[in-house]
Amino acid sequence: MADSTDMFGDPVPEGEGQPTAAELEAAGQSAMFGEPAPVPAVPPSPPPPVAAAPVVQPYRVLARKYRSQTFAELIGQDAMVQTLANAIRRDRLAHAFLMTGVRGVGKTSTARLIAKALNCIGLDGQGGPTIDPCGQCEPCRAIAEGRHIDVIEMDAASHTGVDDVREIIEAVRYAAVSARYKIYIIDEVHMLSRNAFNALLKTLEEPPAHVKFLFATTEVDKLPVTVLSRCQRFDLKRITAPLLASHFAMICEKEGVEAEDEALGMVAAAAEGSVRDGLSILDQAISHADLIGSDDGKTRVSADQVRQMLGLADKTMQRRLLEAVLSGHGGTVLEEVAQQYALGIEPIAMMRAQMDVVHRITVAQVGGIGPDVRSTEEREALESWAKVLAAGQLHRLWQLLLKGYEEVKVAPDPLVAAQMALLRVMHAAEMPDPGGLVRKLEELASRPAIAASAPVSGGGEGGSTDTPTSMAHPASESALPAAAVDWQALVEQVEHVSPLVGATMRLAVRVVDLKPGQLRYQLAPGLPGDPGADIRRALNHITGDAWVVEQASGQALPSLEEAKAQKAEADDAALKENPLVKAALEAFPGAVIIDEDSSREHEKRPWSKRA
After folding, report:
1. How wide is the angle at C-alpha 138 spanned by C-alphas 136 and 139, nearest 5°?
2. What is the mean pLDDT of residues 58-86?
3. CA 180 to chain centre
4. How far apart are CA 445 and CA 409, in angstroms?
């Protein structure tokens, strides 16, 4: 079939530029009905390609974003890192590790880091266990993302039974698929049941060489001793507040956030040693700062914002309240409490803040101002209080504030309870501490008694003799002249041999002169007869010498019992002159001072008559 030609006579290949059969049929039908022939439709050009929308990653909280990925990033656990480094370097790896500590100090992060360190193969794929995993090889990335087939993480809080442990026991028989070690990380291991622990013991004691167990718990005391003895234990320490503050400052710098040192210090203090808690609070503080906004578009975290967010009392307000308490101004105390309460500070936070100030003063008094005190004003206030307040006062303030803190926690109206507690502290601030009171009483007891003006009558041969006051009122039995001290020793020896004669010598004999082998004495009024012969026999017996015992006139010392009574009377009079005792007697009319030693002696000898 010959090719067709176009309008210029040039041949046209068959099928090119010619209408199809369907088009001819349509054109014929259109001509039949007198309609114009349709123009063949031109296919539309394809639409331009649309650029793919960028994938928006969801926000990750700071606690997850800045989770430690290397041992160098793990803060505050230098001893554990050094131990692990030495164990890896010397190929002395234990088959089971136990990480314990408070929340948020890095127990699970440490377990994952150990898994990385044991399974890292390096960038060239030829590396071995190392304390510095590269973080770039496939095992490191898979473990960090939680998708490694040979690193199995199990939450013991939701897998507590024997069946869950049985799966582990059956799986440990098989070698690792792609890693050097098959590692089981069991978090909150203390939640396993007793039967589950027992089922795990044999495998935990003698696991295959390719298996490592990593346990993490916050309550290590709940683990059986049989489990503890099979693990190498690491106690992760609380992170100190200064270290937390510097760590948070580094994170703020990476996030492009400006934060005041005092604000970071408050966040670190509120974290109570937990990195995770601190990062959560810091995340909240940054969000709070973003809501407030700034003129230059930068996020700034200030101390006032953190204080408002946490409901903490300003340090200046804390010091003002304590100053009002110590000065004894009740009205000022109530005004300060009302002002803090109006600012949104809870009463329990007020009491806690006062306890913190007292603690800081005590520490400053003992060991100086700590490095966490950044304000010059606060430093000067703590130093001045540390010099003025005694240690006993500070400890008593702490005890009173602690009791008030407990009362505020359980009170139906915490504000009223805080007011009453602080007023009680205010009234007790000026009272002497028990130790100081005891020292004052001891000083009064050891002070020489005041000489009485009335003479002591001595019974000679029916007559009376005036005795000098210095001899009639000795300060104490041990302060008598040498003759009297010797006399007391003789009387005590006679009492052992003849209690009746010894009692007579103690109660009624007043010494005029006492020498070896000679006693000259007077008798107290009211004693019938002369016990001289009995005394002489007793002295001869206890000394083995011949004694001359006779009555004599002249100046005489009071008898031992009289001296004791005079001393007690003088001590009692001196005690009543004490301002504190005076105030107590005036406050409680009719009160009687009772000697504790005398009371005990009376209990031992109920037949004696108490004075």
Report:
1. 100
2. 87
3. 43
4. 44
